[in-house]
Amino acid sequence: MILKGNQRAGGADLATHLMNEHDNDLVEVAEIRGTVAQDLHGAFGEHEAIAAGTRCKKPLYSLSINPSEPISRDQYRAAIDRIEQRLGLSGQARAVVFHVKHGREHCHVVWSRVDSVNMRAVHISHDRMKLRTLSQELAHEFGLPLPEGLAQGRDTDRERKKDISLGEKAQANATGITPRERSAEITDAFRRSDSAEAFRAALKEKGYILARGDKRGFVVVDRFGKVHSLARQIDGVRTRELNDKLAPLAPEQIPSVDQATEAMRVRGAEAKERVDARVFRRMAELSGKLNVRQATRRGKLDSRKQEMDIVHGSERMSLHAAHKSEAGKPFARVAGAIFALFDRVPGLRSVIAPLRRNPNINPAERHRIEREALDRRHQREHFMLGRRYKALDRLDLKERRSLEITVRRQLLEAEGLRADAGQLRQDQIEVNKIDITVPGDKADASLSKEGKRGWKAKQEKLDGKGQKQNRPRGYRQSREDR
After folding, report:
1. Strands across the sheet with 218-221, in order?
2. Distance between CA 224 and CA 84 in Å, rounded?
3. Is 357 in a helix, a strand, or coil?
4. Nearest-CA neighbor of 88 among 120, 40, 45?
5. Which residues touch 84 (CB under 8 Å, ≥6 apart)?
6. Fewer Cβ atoms within 10 A, N terminus or C terminus of the chain?
């Protein structure tokens, strides 16, 4: 069982992320506790509104529970209660959401860190170590296997740096290359290189550019223009060892981040235009299912709005009928006449004013208060429904962006494979040219020492010293014959 938690703000973005049905096979809001609103956007909005009265900048604590094997809902609830007790969040408002992704179920829990009674934020310290201990305890109680790192109790600073951040996760979703795959490629290039120049050439072969970082010593820029710290990408190598190996490279030999990014942009400009056109067509093909799901959700809200309008209309009519019926009774008519008479005498207006404001004596004042109360409730319900519409708009936009990111990633991967295949064919053509024009015992030496320029020099040398072929005069003319 893996537990990951963090303190954060941005309740609207978090609610939209948790309700995203495009990236998940199933989304289930299992519990919302301690708030008036019974939807995630409203509940997190209440948490942030309460936190506005304090100095708390991150009023939410978000936790993900990812078991290695399926567990029951009772076990989930027991784990959640144990976690909130250990973190000091017992009794705090919370929301529980279950996701099913790629056939595996996991759980998200979001607590409010602000104690609404004392108007103070709950201090959470050493939550990483507490969650690590809880992972081991809960896995032992539920009979679940632990990952290798948790089972062996490893928790070094270098392994903490290897944890994927939110920015790296977004880059992986956009490019289709996970941090582990990228690190494996760069580590392999580093291991196979015996010099700084060979390492740079190996990176270029894999589609990366070695560059100088502004704050970091060395960085790599991938084919998508994303910048990564080189020291974080190579496993088992310290920064000092990396700097020693790359020391022979002169500063002017290594481009800056801006130069490397611009080079990647120019290299991929043509491919980007093709991908953009294909993304538009592919989105038009795949948007059908997404539009149906969004229309279903919006239809439910429209039905709710129609029902609410009918109820509000009937409540206003009922209240108006009750007020009209009461206004026709003798007491109400007499009271109205007396108050109207007193209003004509300026000296009695100040005396009669408190009686006019008393709803128990003046039916008209009571009717006004009831009408205003009903209008305020109707406005509040309309506002809540309007907020639900805004949340739905954010969710629709999030799902459409997720679909576009998925389509673009697939097309970019296909375009990258095509570009790699084209470069491989070009390299093979150059090798074949050398094999044809240079004797076999010198081909390898020529390729390694002189490369393409060496082949051209040898070809020019052969053309200068070679003999003319015996051919008919009019068959083909050479430059010398013209």
Report:
1. 209-212, 218-221, 227-229
2. 41
3. coil
4. 120
5. 90, 92, 94, 109, 111
6. C
Query: If you write DSSP's letter for every residue of 258-282 in order, what string do you get?
Result: HHHHHHHHHHTHHHHHHHHHHHHHH
**Is residue 167 exposed (0-12), middle (13-18) or buried (19+ Cβ within 10 Å)?**
exposed
How far apart (Å, rounded) are the C-alpha atoms in residues 471 and 469?
Answer: 6
Across 7-16, 258-267, 309-318, least confident range: 258-267
**Secondary structure of residue 235 in the 3-state scheme:** coil
Can you give the pLDDT at residue 76?
92
pLDDT tens string 381-393: 999 899 889 989 9
Nearest of 231, 228, 230, 101 to residue 177 by alpha carbon: 228
Dig out the tokens for 376 from the structure: 């305020």
What SS3 class is residue 228? strand
Q: Which two tokens stand for residue 115?
A: 């104690």
Contact 246, 199 (CB under 8 A): yes
Nearest CA among 87, 188, 90, 173 for reference residue 130 = 87
Query: Across 75-155, where does the E strand assignment appear?
Result: 94-101, 104-112, 114-115, 120-121
Evaluate if residue 269 carries a pLDDT over 70.
Answer: no
